């Protein structure tokens, strides 16, 4: 049985945080471009990172849904997922979001995206990941502990 507090109480929904930072970087780019690399190089590397992100996020999302648990961190977790990219990372969707963000930052070719990535990562770690870990530890106990011992937080 789930209760209204049966969730990790994350500070922000991760896709919204990354989208807000990306939007802010585009506004700042318009005001002061600060390119990272030559456009062709930045575009090419950015596209590769976007494709890599999709290669992580799509199977990660499928693994969560196949296990009957939600992708939305504001909803209760139903299971510890250990398949797909969750075999290598406890947070592959967040890694994928970070890769996607970096790829889009390179496509837009502005240092602002990388500058804004620093507070995004701090918020993700402190306000999302650590809260999720406490929640999963309380909810799943030894099952989560064993998973945590086998699989790294990020890689």
Secondary structure topology:
Layout: H1 14-31, H2 39-66, H3 92-108, H4 111-140, H5 142-150
Helix pairs in contact: 1-3, 1-4, 2-3, 3-4
Question: Please, could you describe this protein's structure?
Answer:
The chain is an all-alpha fold. The chain has one domain. The protein is built from 5 helices and no strands. Helix 1 runs antiparallel to helix 4 (111-140). The longest helix is centred in the C-terminal third of the chain and has 30 residues, at 111-140. The protein starts with 13 loop residues before the first helix and ends in a 5-residue tail after the last helix. The model has no long low-confidence stretch (mean pLDDT 96).
Q: What is the straight-line distance between the termini? A: 32 Å
Low-pLDDT segments, ≥5 res? none
Q: What structural class do helix, strand and pairing data support?
A: mainly alpha
Q: Strand portion, in percent?
A: under 5%
Main sheet summary? none
Basic shape = elongated
List keywords for this structure.
155 residues; mainly alpha; single chain
Give a brief outline of the structure.
Helix content is 66%, strand content 0%.
């Amino acid at each position: 049985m789930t209760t209204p507090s049966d969730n990790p109480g994350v500070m922000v929904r991760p896709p919204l945080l990354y989208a807000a930072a990306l939007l802010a970087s585009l506004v700042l780019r318009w005001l002061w471009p600060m390119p990272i690399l030559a456009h062709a190089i930045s575009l090419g590397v950015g596209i590769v990172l976007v494709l890599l992100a999709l290669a992580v996020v799509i199977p990660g999302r499928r693994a969560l849904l196949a296990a009957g648990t939600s992708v939305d961190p504001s909803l209760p977790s139903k299971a510890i997922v250990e398949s797909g990219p969750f075999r290598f990372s406890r947070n592959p969707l967040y890694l994928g979001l970070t890769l996607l963000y970096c790829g889009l930052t390179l496509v837009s070719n502005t240092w602002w995206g990388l500058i804004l990535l620093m507070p995004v990562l701090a918020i993700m770690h402190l306000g999302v990941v650590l809260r999720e870990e406490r929640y999963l530890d309380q909810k799943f106990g030894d099952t989560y502990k064993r998973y945590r011992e086998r699989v790294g937080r990020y890689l």
